[in-house]
Amino acid sequence: MDENKLGVMEGRFAELIWASAPISTGNLVKACQDAFGWKRTTTYTMLKRLCQRGIFQNDNGTVVVLMPKADFHRRQSEQFVADTFGGSLPAFIAAFTRGKTLSDKEADEIQRLIDNSRQKNKEG
Fold it and tell me: What is the structure's pLDDT at 2?
């Protein structure tokens, strides 16, 4: 099982937890019933899967976040670039922008990210 990938329902479930945590398991069961029509057992099965991946923890009936959403998405992105582009960020950016024109705002944001990364490299 690839811990950096979530199925569609796993992703929706994770989003619900990230938006609500910490949340009691009772409230999570109710939220999943309302949002997805799930039974209690389905919620607990899905929770167990994501806890085994180290994303969340069921701490005595309270679900807490172990891996923030931003960290999870960073890991997903890194894995995608590694698997698809041999870990080359420039190759990813070239493929992503091929046939697409960046707006000035997008280009400025990318340049800001590059400048920040260069500054961090100089500092540390």
Answer: 63
